[in-house]
Structures are given as C-alpha cells and as structure tokens.
Specification:
Elements: H1 6-23, H2 30-48, H3 53-80, H4 82-96, E1 119-125, H5 132-141, E2 145-150, E3 153-159, H6 160-170
Antiparallel strand pairs: 1-3, 2-3
Helix pairs in contact: 1-2, 1-3, 1-4, 2-3, 3-4
Length: 176
C-alpha cells in the first residue's frame, strides 16, 4: 500500500533535503533533526487513527511543524544555490498537492521500505529502552533521523552508509 498523504510526502521530501544538505557540507542545526523526528511520530499517530478527535487536532500541529522545518531547510537550500532551492521547492509543491514524490509501503519486516530513494531505514528492537539523549547523540554523529516507535523499538532513517554506522554503534542495545 502506498500513501499519497500530503504531510507524509512532505516529511519524506524534507528528510531527503535535510540529508542532501548535510552531504553538501551545509551545517544543519540539531534542532531541525529533532523536530523532523518528532513530526514523523505525530504523522504515524495521525495515520493510525485519522478520525479520532485527538488525531485531528494533531494534524494542525504536524502542518505547523512541517512548515517551520520547511522554512528553515529552504533557507539553508538557498545557500547552496537558486536552482537547488527551486528543485526542492518543486518537490515540496508536488507533495503538498498530494502527489506521490516517494513511494511508501507498509511492511512487517525489520527493514522499513518507505524510506526515500537513496535512503535506508531499519527498525531496531532494543534489549531495554535507551535514553533519548543517547539515541539523539548517535543520530547526530551519523547524520540519521531516529524515531521511537515504542520504548524499545526505534526506526532509523538516513543515507545507507550512515545507517550501517549507526546500527553498529547501537548494536550492543539490540535484542538477542
């Protein structure tokens, strides 16, 4: 099943942009990484039950957060160049119209298929819950977005090599 849900597509574009900016050597503030991870959790909350009154309220907060992240990342994209910024603006525009920019799939496997092209994602079951600040530290060191799905399950998104390095670093926390 693929999703053309505009906020999810926008999130995928922003994650791709964030990673691309880092690859280009742009200094992306830590706060943007954290905000991006938190928004994904909220999107998943909304998708799990879109008709519940609490999740409907959550959608406005998700949109506000995405707009804030988008503004900050597009300012950074402008430092790379006008054409670069326009290219990402077009992807964001397409996503906001509900068009599929990146395919997403639901999966039961340990690896998450819904990551954008050029990205890898993994779902990790931990032996015990990890301190969020330790996870954030690993995410920053490896240019990853790490999302808590449960206290002892995390999803990791990022460039293939970065995901491998991040997995090695948190390998000692995996369930046997």
């Amino acid at each position: 099943m693929s999703s053309n849900f505009p906020v999810e597509q926008t999130w995928l574009v922003l994650v791709d942009l964030l990673t691309d900016l880092k690859k280009k050597g742009v200094d992306v503030p830590t706060k943007i990484n954290e905000d991006t991870r938190l928004v994904k959790t909220s999107i998943n909350f909304y998708i799990s039950n879109p008709t519940h009154p609490d999740t409907i309220k959550e959608l406005k907060r998700v949109n506000d957060s995405l707009n804030s992240i988008q503004d900050r990342l597009m300012d950074l994209a402008e430092t790379v160049g006008d054409d670069y910024q326009k290219e990402w603006f077009e992807k964001l525009k397409k996503a906001s119209l509900g068009k599929e920019v990146y395919k997403t799939h639901e999966t039961k496997s340990r690896f998450i298929v819904g990551a954008p092209p050029g990205f890898q994602a993994a779902r990790v079951n931990l032996k015990e819950p990890l301190a969020e600040d330790r996870v954030q530290e690993i995410a920053e060191e490896n240019n990853l977005i790490i999302e808590f799905e449960k206290d002892d399950v995390i999803a990791i998104y990022g460039d293939s090599a970065c995901v491998k390095n991040g997995l090695k670093e948190i390998g000692s926390f995996f369930k046997d």
